[in-house]
Write a structure and sequence with these properties.
single chain, mainly alpha, two-stranded antiparallel sheet, about 55% helix, binds zinc ion
Length: about 200
């Protein structure tokens, strides 16, 4: 917040009808920051907000609150997803990690579904060399994710599950793309790097 043209005292701010003033002196918590004409130093307000938020997040949610959250999500899916995607990469990574820790069962189930799908879509006549080729693609995806910081995944060019034609789990149906590209595809099967 630009303090240069702010009133220097509360009385001055009141007289001018300004929302903020700036004395240049530290508050009781040591912030040198503008203060609201109606109350506290803005940095103190931010701190109190953060403490409140943490406290609220730490409390277990009531069933009603959970239901309200689900309703909001269903109504505003596009917005919620866009907001989440706009967050910094590191924040998103931590969020994913936390979600994974809190819901190990979901991820176990996802992995086993994926493994089964891959198994069922792998023809019997596949050679060991072709299997190795596929494994290498998954390694490439992991390495690209590490090096670029952008999540890369292995995509089935023709989806394994599709109403039209089902693809195979074979090297020539696989390619490495970013997760964002993958999510743009109509088939929303998330295929994260893993060996098959
Ligand atoms: Zn303060």
């Amino acid at each position: 917040m630009d303090t240069t043209n702010m009133p220097k005292s509360r009385s001055e701010a009141k007289a001018l009808g300004a929302k903020f003033y700036f004395t240049g002196e530290a508050c009781t918590r040591g912030h040198v920051a503008p203060r609201k004409t109606k109350g506290a130093c803005i940095e103190c307000v931010k701190e109190d907000w953060a403490i409140d938020n943490e406290r609220r997040k730490a409390k277990p949610k009531s069933e009603a609150a959970k239901a309200a959250g689900r309703r909001y999500y269903e109504k505003n899916k596009v917005l919620v997803k866009a907001r989440a995607n706009a967050r910094p990469v590191e924040e998103r990574r931590q969020h994913r990690q936390k979600h994974r820790q809190n819901h190990p069962d979901i991820y176990k189930a996802l992995v086993s579904v994926r493994k089964r799908r891959h198994r069922e879509a792998t023809p019997k006549w596949i050679t060991a060399a072709q299997k190795l080729e596929m494994r290498k693609l998954y390694l490439t995806a992991m390495q690209l994710t590490k090096v670029t910081g952008v999540r890369h995944v292995v995509d089935h060019i023709v989806p394994l599950i599709s109403p039209v034609v089902c693809g195979l789990h074979v090297p020539w149906n696989l390619r490495v793309i970013t997760q964002d590209e993958n999510l743009k595809k109509s088939n929303k099967l998330i295929d994260t790097p893993s060996t098959t």
